[in-house]
Amino acid sequence: MYITTPTESQIYAAVRSWLIEVLPGINANNIVQGQLNRVAAPTDPFVTMLIIDRRRLATNGWTYDKETSRTIVDKTQITMQINVFGAATSNYMQAITTLWRDMSAVDFFDALNIDLTPLFTSDVRQAGFITSERQYDDQWTVDLEMQANFTLSLPQQFATEIDVTLFEIDAAYPIPQAVLGSFILGTDTLAIVSGTG
Questions:
Q1: Torsion sign (Cα): 19, 20, 26, 32
Q2: How far apart are CA 182 and CA 185, in angstroms?
C-alpha cells in the first residue's frame, strides 16, 4: 500500500496545535476531532474539527531521486469545518478567522515542517446547538481553507550506465548496386519495386 504524506492524522494534529496556540482560553483537551462515536462532548467551551472537502488544484508534479523512486506531488485544497461551542464563543471564532489569514499562521505551519498552507476562510455562521439536556447552546462555525501538497513515492527503475557498441552501417551492410529499386506511389500504398537494371 502506498502512503501519502501528510496523512489525515498529521493534518488534524497540526491544525489542533494551531488552535491551541490561538485559543489560550480553551482547555487543550477540549479541542477535538469531530464525528467521534461513543464519546461525550467536552464541557463548554470546546472546539471540533472536521475535514469536509478536498479539491485537486493542479495536475500531478513529480521529482526523481537518483536511484530508486519517483515522488508524485498532488496539490489539494482542503476544507476543514471548525465549530466552537459555548456562551460568548463568537470572540474565539473572531480570533480564528483573523489569525488564519495572517502571516503568523503560515509561519506556524512552516515551523511544524508540514506541507500545509492556510489560504482563507468562509464567512462565520451561528448554527445553534441543542445539548443532551435539551438546552440551546451557541455554536459558531467556519470553514478553514488550506492547501496540502500530498506526496507519494513509487518505485522507479533507472539506468545509471549503459554499454553501447557502434556499427558503421554502410561499411558492414552495403546496399547492393544491383538492387537500387524504384518507388511506385499508389492511391493508398507505397510499394517498392526492385530490379536488376
A1: positive
A2: 10
How many other C-beta atoms can be found within 10 angstroms of the C-beta atom of residue 31? 22
| CATH label of the domain that carries residue 60 | 3.30.70
Question: What pTM value is reported for the model?
Answer: 0.76
Q: Give, as one character, the DSSP assignment of residue 115.
A: S
Sign of CA dihedral 25, 126, 136, 40: negative
Spatial separation of the C-alpha atoms in residues 105 and 145, rounded to whole Å: 12
Write the CB contacts of 31 (distance below 8 Å, at least 6 apart in sequence).
16, 19, 20, 23, 46, 47, 49
Whether 118 shows a pLDDT value over 60: the answer reads yes
Rounded distance, CA 51 to CA 12, Å?
Answer: 8
- For the chain, the domain total comes to 1
